[in-house]
């Protein structure tokens, strides 16, 4: 239409459409999505922090008075004690490690006729059996030496390393120990046994079971009791009713067990091995008290069983008290504990808080149980009932026959073992799962943390072994919780940094009041944990390394644990159980003692953390460029703070990727793949932003 004004006509154009820049709409949508992701990550972390405060509400410290024990029971009235030591691969868990653990508990300040040590060799290796034959002979000298001289450090390797005390016969004992260690280590190195080391026909016959068809995953049960003195004895490690040490004292029972296995039947990993120990010990000694130990967790205090009796025999204690858990404390940790291997927060600080709530959690080692907690009622096999009285020698034909029967791989068919009886199946973390189900049945537990550690174990000294171990523990978490933990770590380590690369501000400006809330939460959470470490006697450097490992395991162990959980959930075969290697190379130990991170192997576990390191470094440098270009820091300050914090945490990674030349450096393959992944993430994000 037209209109005439002053002789001139003008045309008014009414637009039928408008042009909206799609890039701006897309950017707004991306900003909203990123903000929601960050909010979810913050919510998960806030939830984890809030729930962890329960451990701080009612921490419990306990103290026992061993000198008062005699008022409740004479030594002759002490209950029998069965000790379970679990080992598997002799090349990942050196037999001498298991030998030292067994010798340390055999020399407890406890009536030897009431003490039995059962060693489960889940690898079915004749090398491990040979090591315990040697241990049985050495025990006849070591036990009286410890008790005569009142030695406190009763793990031979730890004792001779410490040189705390020296007596006239010490040099001779040390020489015999070193000779034993050399024989065992040479056998492991060669993969075969020199039969010149065997002292009688009975020992030679024991190895005849390792035929050509004998494999670690397919073999009949082997139960061996070696007797170092009676050449006529065909089966025997140490039987307390006959064997005596060099001072004519009765020796504890020492029994080697390799359970029967078949490739057609599930063996249920460590839980299956522990259930076999429960059954075999039930037929031989059937002690009412059981101690479970990992192969590397040796006794550091010979009076530990007496501490346990102070709880079990105290009439004031709850009759439903089922088990006493001691903390996992590790020796050989370097000065600053670069891998957070001491796990101070989990195994000591939070454990005492858990004790004040619902009782301590069973952590798989260093725990004393009442045998009755594993049985709901009478069993189909009378010899396995907890009240069954063993009145025959453990070396009798009847007892040995029954022991072999219950150790066979077919025994558990159509039974309730692993579901309602014994250690529970269905997960790689049989310890936490069993603990949970026992508490559901009303059993109580307590946490005992004496000044002198009851047990000391080996901690991994390379990052790969540490992450593998943490991955297995991560599978304890439910699928949903584990997914949320992975989500939080990944979004805080990647999303703000990728947004920074795209010049997108996703946090409040430094002048915004909400910024103060972020800073308060950040400093408050880290400050609380730092204070707890300091109050527990740790250093700031150890706390810093612990928080670094929290991020690393969130990026690697948790994500791989989540993948394994998902595969298992949908019925796909998973990676299986990986034993943490206890084998230590000299150069690796040297680097560890110097506080240098150990990588070395091209493991996929390293990819997420190295990719995060690359992303954070590049985004921080790009952020600096943008600040100089735009003369504006306020909008990007929080993102640059996160990236800068990550860079400081990732310094060992940058060092391993670029600066180092030793064997422990980051493999070039991992570095190149990480750079490629970081570049791919940037390209994908640039489309979204």
UniProtKB/TrEMBL annotation:
State the protein's name: Cellulose synthase-like protein G3
Presence of keyword Cell wall biogenesis/degradation? yes
Q: What is its main location?
A: membrane
Positions that bind UDP-alpha-D-glucose: 92-93, 122
Q: Where in the cell is it found?
A: Endomembrane system
Q: What's a single GO MF annotation on this record?
A: cellulose synthase (UDP-forming) activity
Q: Residues in the active site?
A: 122, 431
Source organism's superkingdom? Eukaryota
Question: Which Pfam family is one of those matched by this entry?
Answer: Cellulose_synt
Residue numbers binding Mn(2+): 270, 294
Q: Where does the record locate the signal sequence feature?
A: none
Question: Per the UniProt entry, what is one GO biological process?
Answer: cellulose biosynthetic process
Upper lineage: Eukaryota, Viridiplantae, Streptophyta, Embryophyta, Tracheophyta
Keyword annotations: Cell wall biogenesis/degradation, Glycosyltransferase, Membrane, Transferase, Transmembrane, Transmembrane helix
What membrane topology does this protein have?
Multi-pass membrane protein
């Amino acid at each position: 239409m037209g209109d005439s004004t002053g002789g001139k006509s003008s045309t008014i154009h009414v637009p039928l459409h408008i042009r909206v820049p799609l890039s701006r709409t897309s950017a707004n949508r991306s900003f909203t999505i990123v903000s929601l992701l960050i909010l979810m990550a913050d919510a998960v972390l806030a939830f984890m922090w809030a729930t962890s405060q329960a451990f701080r509400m009612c921490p419990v410290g306990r103290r026992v008075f061993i000198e008062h024990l005699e008022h409740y029971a004479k030594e002759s009235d002490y209950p029998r004690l069965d000790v379970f030591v679990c080992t598997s691969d002799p090349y990942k868990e050196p037999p001498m490690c298991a030998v030292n653990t067994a010798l340390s508990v055999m020399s407890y300040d406890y009536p030897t006729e009431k003490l039995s040590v059962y060693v489960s060799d889940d690898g079915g290796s004749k090398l491990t059996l040979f090591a315990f034959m040697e241990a049985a002979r050495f025990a006849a000298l070591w036990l009286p030496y410890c008790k005569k001289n009142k030695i406190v450090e009763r793990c031979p390797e730890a004792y001779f390393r410490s040189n705390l005390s020296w007596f006239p016969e010490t040099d001779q004992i040390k020489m015999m120990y070193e000779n034993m260690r050399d024989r065992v280590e040479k056998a492991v190195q060669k993969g075969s046994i020199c039969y010149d080391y065997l002292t009688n026909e009975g020992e030679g016959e024991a190895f005849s079971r390792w035929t050509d068809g004998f494999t670690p995953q397919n073999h009949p049960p082997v139960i061996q009791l070696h007797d170092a003195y009676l050449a006529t004895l065909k089966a025997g490690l140490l039987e307390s009713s006959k064997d005596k040490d060099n001072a004519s004292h009765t020796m504890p029972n020492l029994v080697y067990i390799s359970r029967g296995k078949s490739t057609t039947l599930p063996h249920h990993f460590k839980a299956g091995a522990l259930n076999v120990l429960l059954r075999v010990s039930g037929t031989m000694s059937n002690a009412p008290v059981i101690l479970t130990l990992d192969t590397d967790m040796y006794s550091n205090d010979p009076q530990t069983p007496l501490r346990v009796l102070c709880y079990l025999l105290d009439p004031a204690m709850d009759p439903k008290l089922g088990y006493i858990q001691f903390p996992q404390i590790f020796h050989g940790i370097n000065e600053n504990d670069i891998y957070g291997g001491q796990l101070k927060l989990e195994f000591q600080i939070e454990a005492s808080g858990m004790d004040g709530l619902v009782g301590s959690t069973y952590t798989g080692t260093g725990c004393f149980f009442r045998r009755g907690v594993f049985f709901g009622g009478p069993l189909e096999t009378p010899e396995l009932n907890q009240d069954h009285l063993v009145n025959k020698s453990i070396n009798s034909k009847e007892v040995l026959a029954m022991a072999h029967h219950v150790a066979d791989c077919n025994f558990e068919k159509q039974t309730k073992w692993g579901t309602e009886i014994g250690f529970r199946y269905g997960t790689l973390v049989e310890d936490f799962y069993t603990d949970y189900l026992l508490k559901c049945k009303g059993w109580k537990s307590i946490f005992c943390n004496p000044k002198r550690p009851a047990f000391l174990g080996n901690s991994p000294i390379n990052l790969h072994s540490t992450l593998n171990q943490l991955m297995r523990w991560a599978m304890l978490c439910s699928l949903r919780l584990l997914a949320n933990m992975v989500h939080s770590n990944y979004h805080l380590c990647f999303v703000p940094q990728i947004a920074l690369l795209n010049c997108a501000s996703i946090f409040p400006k430094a002048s915004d009041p909400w910024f103060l809330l972020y800073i308060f939460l950040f400093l408050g959470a880290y400050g609380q944990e730092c204070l707890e470490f300091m109050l527990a006697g740790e250093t700031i450097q150890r706390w810093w390394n612990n928080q670094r490992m929290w991020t690393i395991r969130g990026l690697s162990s948790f994500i791989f644990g989540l993948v394994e959980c998902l595969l298992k959930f949908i019925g796909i075969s998973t990676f299986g159980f990986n034993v943490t290697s206890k084998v230590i190379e000299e150069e690796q130990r040297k680097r560890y003692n110097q506080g240098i991170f150990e990588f070395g192997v091209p493991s996929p576990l390293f990819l997420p953390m190295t990719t995060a390191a690359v992303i954070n470094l590049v985004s921080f440098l790009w952020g600096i460029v943008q600040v100089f270009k735009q003369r504006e820091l306020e909008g990007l300050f929080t993102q640059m703070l996160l990236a800068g914090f990550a860079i400081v945490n990732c310094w060992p990674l940058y060092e391993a990727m670029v600066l180092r030349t030793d064997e422990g450096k980051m493999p070039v393959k991992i570095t190149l793949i990480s750079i490629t992944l970081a570049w791919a993430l940037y390209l994908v994000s640039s489309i979204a932003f």
